[in-house]
Design goal:
13 helices; alpha/beta; eight-stranded mixed sheet; 18 strands
């Protein structure tokens, strides 16, 4: 099996930059950063307090400028909990464009030369944001379609159901280096290249923060989405900045994966909820954070989907029926053999190698303890399939 091989990509003809110290060393800029803190106030002013070239990744979930007018009701007459907050209201496209240009300019300044930027949006704003990104010199690496397994219906029946959002992943420029954990993404996706269409559920159930039965934030993003973003484009110890921190999904996932985080949020109710949430989050064990380095069901489910959705947590011990081998689930969905941690692979690949067999169905080979019960990992897959049924 290979070792962790993050891909540092550089366009042909680019000047090779000095090697960047990751993981084990903190440079002077990081030592002066407000790590694990939420900066109060406007995000542009908050970012101006940060040093230039100081953060490794920015994940931004800005206001979408939804331009909603009036109440939206379900067929039974109940009111839909839509986004009508003041922070999503702009008087004109020109004002929204200026706001976008201002925060992206500061984001560009604080981002390291080999850093990455993610922006998520809907059809209401993502095209305007994309154009401004390009005007400022960012280079779009991918547009990712997050296809929601459980989107809100179009209750009026006047348009297609809006079942996706778009994420733009950018580097600082066409010739800039950037960080991509290609191998970890392939492992997360059961040894297939991760595609640019991601099928993930919206935030719901116990993950959705509520106060008195009401959602704390109307657009809380699912942890599985941030899990994939951070696992793909950061390493342990990297600094992640979220200028629109909301209720802290970015901070919670960053803490779990051993990344540093900084948030900007002007709404006190969101800051309070985020701090409480992150305080409860426990970092993964060091060994579980490590990732792989460099019969088909319908729909197909990757083991990594169960991990990023929290149905099987990194650090879980799995074993074969006769308990000859025990392995630890890692953050990217790969397994590491406890008796020889250098032996690692997918649930199928490691099972095949251990048995010296031509193939292995990892779903039925590996078991885990759930309280006093011993279950097949396939039992969790079946639960996941039920949860994403239309």
């Amino acid at each position: 099996m290979g070792v962790h091989e993050p891909v540092k990509l550089r366009e042909k003809g680019a000047v090779k930059a000095p090697k960047r110290l990751r993981k084990s060393h903190k440079d002077d800029r990081q030592l002066h950063l407000p790590l694990s803190q939420i900066l109060d106030g406007d995000c542009v002013e908050a970012m101006r307090s940060l040093p230039t070239d100081s953060v490794d990744l920015i994940f931004a979930d800005p206001p979408y400028n939804l331009q909603l007018g009036g109440d939206l009701n379900r067929p039974d007459g109940s009111q839909v909990d839509a986004v009508t907050d003041h922070w999503d209201q702009f008087d004109s496209f020109q004002i929204y464009d200026k706001f976008t240009r201002d925060w992206l300019t500061e984001a560009r300044r604080v981002l390291k030369p080999d850093g990455g930027l993610w922006v998520i949006g809907s059809y209401h704003n993502i095209y305007r944001v994309g154009a401004i990104l390009q005007d400022l010199g960012f280079w779009i690496l991918n547009d990712i379609v997050w296809r929601k397994t459980n989107p809100m219906p179009n209750f009026k029946g006047t348009r297609f159901t809006n079942a996706h959002e778009t994420l733009l992943w950018c580097s600082q420029g066409e010739k800039s280096r950037y960080h991509f954990n290609y191998r970890a993404m392939k492992t997360l996706n059961d040894e297939l290249q991760m595609r640019s269409d991601w099928v993930l559920p919206i935030c719901s159930g116990g993950e959705r923060l509520k106060e008195g039965g009401t959602k704390v934030h109307p657009t809380q993003k699912p942890e599985s989405l941030l899990y994939r973003v951070l696992l793909a484009t950061t390493d342990k110890g990297d600094v992640v900045l979220d200028p629109f921190f909301g209720t802290g999904t970015t901070g919670a996932v960053a803490k779990r994966l051993g990344r540093e985080w900084i948030g900007c949020e002007r709404e006190s109710i969101y800051r309070d909820a985020a701090l409480k949430r992150i305080a409860k989050e426990l970092p993964l064990d060091e060994s579980a954070i490590e990732t792989m380095q460099s019969k088909k069901a319908a729909p197909r489910v990757a083991f990594g989907a169960l991990v990023e959705n929290g149905m099987i947590k990194p650090g879980t011990k799995v074993f074969d029926k006769k308990r000859r081998w025990t392995a630890t689930v890692r953050a990217d969905g790969s397994l590491s053999l406890d008796s020889d941690p250098k032996k690692m692979g997918s649930i199928h690949g490691l099972g095949k190698d251990l048995q010296d067999a031509p193939s292995c169905n990892g779903w039925t080979f590996w078991h885990f303890e759930d309280g006093s019960e011993i279950k097949l990992v396939d039992a969790v897959r079946q639960l996941y399939l039920l949860s994403i049924e239309d």
